Amino acid sequence: MDNSRKHNYFDLLFASVTAVASFTVIIFIIGIVAVLFNESSLAIGRFGVVNFLTSTVWDPVKGIFGAATTIYGTVVTTVFALLFSIPTAIGIAIFVTEIAPNFLKTPIGVAIELLAAIPSIIYGMWGLFTLAPIMSRYVEPALKASIGKLPYLGFLFQGNPMGIDLLTASSILAIMIIPFTASIARDSFNLTPSVVKESAYAIGATRWEVVKNVVLPYSKLGIFGGAALSLGRALGETMAVAFVLGNNHRIATSLLDAASTITVSLANEFTEADTDLYLSSLYYLALILFVMSFVILAVSKYFLLKAERKYSR
Amino acid sequence: MNLETKRKAESFIALTLSGLAAAVGLFWLVYILGDVLINGIGALKPSLFLNDPVPAGVEGGGLRNAFIGQLMITGAATLIGVPIGVLGGTFLAEYGRGSRTARAISVLSDITVSVPALVVGAFVWAIVVRPLHHFSGWAGALALSIIMIPIVLRTTEDMLSLVPWTLREAAFALGAPYYKVIIQIVYRGAATGILTGILLSMARVAGEAAPLLFTSFNNNFFSGNMNGPIASLTVTIFQYAMGPYKSWHEQAWGAAFVITLFILTLTIVGRVIIWWRYKR
Q1: Residues in chain B with pLDDT < 50?
Q2: Sign of the CA dihedral B170, B174, B179, B181?
Q3: Whole domain around residue B248: which residue ranges?
Q4: A119 interaction partners in chain B (CB closer than 8 Å)
Q5: Mean pLDDT over all residues of chain A?
Q6: Is residue B9, in this structure, part of any structural domain at all?
Q7: Rounded CA gap, B260 and B37, in Å?
Q8: Of A168, A187, A247, B142, whose CB is crowded by the most CB atoms within 10 A?
């Protein structure tokens, strides 16, 4: 029985090696949180939590740092990106699953997924060289002359249309996250049982009524999960916005103003941080970003799992 | 207008709008790719691949250092990330199958895939770059491999789970120990799928610039030393595109074209393999 003991030994060894390999994921997550926390302890001690989150001062010269401006920039770009992208993404999903003839379904689906594969640095560069000039020359003056004159929405479009601003950054983010939402929405639409759709058609529903009253309610968990996933991705996106946002630490009320996000300040200032407190504050920002995106991605995963469990039965 | 016409009109409008949405999505794809293609092709000269950069503002020069550096960093990241990812995925799909721990790791990996890459760069800076007092290609490779591991791990898990359980039982019945069953039967059955996962994960990390900013940094000279700062295409694109010189912009477009082509090719090859292997 010597042979079988050898086999048992190898089996145990292989099992342990694979187990250790899979635990690296947990080790990295714990490691990242621990390192970020440790590195930012100086800034946490100096500025506290509430004070840091609400302070709009970011002054490397005087050594006073607050996160409000970058968090504001992060939230505004992300929210506008979602506003632009989600309707488009759902439209794409409806088109691909319910309207497109069969021979078009795969090519369009693949094309949308290729959009997801383009690296973010390409989006950023394209934004800087192509989209920003178009925005500053045509789109932004037009918006300023039309919506900028309206009483309640006017404040959104004030200032000089430079092209390097919140609006351009949000547009690029929106283009970038369309495919994430679209492909998840498409997958959840496809989970709607055809029997249910056919019964709706049988009682005389139009195609839109089937989509609106059967498919959309059926897949709302999946769509919500997909939107949350895009939100998480957009929050942590660096290169696509770093080119076109300007790194300006202030609360910009107009979408035509330059601003900064957590990722943009990190990318621009990290290697230039000359004092321990400066670096520690940047790590504090990174910690806030990590926690924000981790929580949002976890929520997204929760909804996607719930959707999967509900319909795979 | 009677109710029926109204409903039909409503349906027509809504469906047209979603068709327009699809057109908008495709429009951006064509616009971006077209722009990269048109501007990139013009910048593709032999000198781009064969020469090293010249001092800022001087015409000419190329990005040989960045092409080689990118290959070295991505290659090293693959060497670190793939074994860990494949073995980890093996645990989730085989030894840990169905267990609470395996489920938890699987979900955590899915989350980690989308975690900000920049934060990973800051993490590696604190644990590798600062203690060693210098930027290095290895640090960049480590950062990329941290992003790569969860991707490879999840695809491996999925692909191994697709191998029918009866196949394993047949091998068990012949008296094979589990590790032999996994290596000789299960891996063989899932090889194409795992390879695809590796290709797609390489495509993903090859385009990452954010984690390299603080780790492998950049280098204006040719360097094959993974122990020192090393140039990469993505960081060079960032530096050149933000820079003031026309010749820099042109080279940035050239680099962007090459990297986009590389990534889209990997992605398409990956999709074709999956389609060919599993949908037929």
Answers
A1: none
A2: negative
A3: 64-279
A4: 206-209, 234, 259-260, 263
A5: 89
A6: no
A7: 9
A8: A168
The torsion of the CA quartet B72, B73, B77, B79, rounded to 10 degrees, works out to 10
CA distance A166 to chain B (A): 18
Q: A65: part of which helix (H) or strand (E)?
A: strand A64-65
Paired tokens of B260: 């986009």
Q: What CATH number is given to the structural domain containing B199?
A: 1.10.3720.10
DSSP of A267-312, one letter per residue?
A: HHHGGG--SHHHHHHHHHHHHHHHHHHHHHHHHHHHHHHHHHHHHH
The shortest C-alpha distance from A268 to chain B (Å) reads 9
Does residue B219 sit within a domain?
Answer: yes
Single pTM value for the model: 0.92
Q: Is the pLDDT of residue A1 over 60?
A: no
* pLDDT given for residue B87 in this prediction: 95
State the Cα–Cα distance between residues B5 and B8, nearest whole angstrom: 5
**How many domains, in total, are found in chain B?**
1
Segment (H or E) for A64: strand A64-65
* Inter-chain residue contact B84 with A179, CB threshold 8 Å: no
Per-residue pLDDT tens digits for A111-136: 888 888 899 999 999 999 999 999 88
* Structural domain includes residue B95: yes
| Cβ atoms of residues A234 and A254 within 8 Å | no
Give the Å distances, CA to CA, from A118 to A177, B202, B226: 11, 13, 27
Domains of chain A with bracketed CATH: 50-312 (1.10.3720.10)
Q: Residue A140 pLDDT more than 70? A: yes
Q: A2 pLDDT exceeds 70?
A: no
Cβ-based contacts of A40 with chain B (< 8 Å): none
Q: Are A166 and A78 in contact (CB under 8 A)?
A: no
The pLDDT score that the predictor gives to residue B58 is 73
- Taking CA atoms, what residue in B is nearest to A233? B114
Residues 117-176 of A with CB under 8 A from B: 117-126, 128-130, 175
What residues of chain B lie within 8 A of the CB of A282, using their CB?
Answer: 122
* pLDDT score of B107: 93
Rounded Cα gap, residues B280 and B277, in angstroms: 7
Contacts with B139 from chain A: Cβ below 8 Å: none
Which residues 125-164 of B are in CB contact (within 8 Å) with A? 125-127, 146, 149-150, 153
Q: Token pair of B23, please?
A: 């057109």
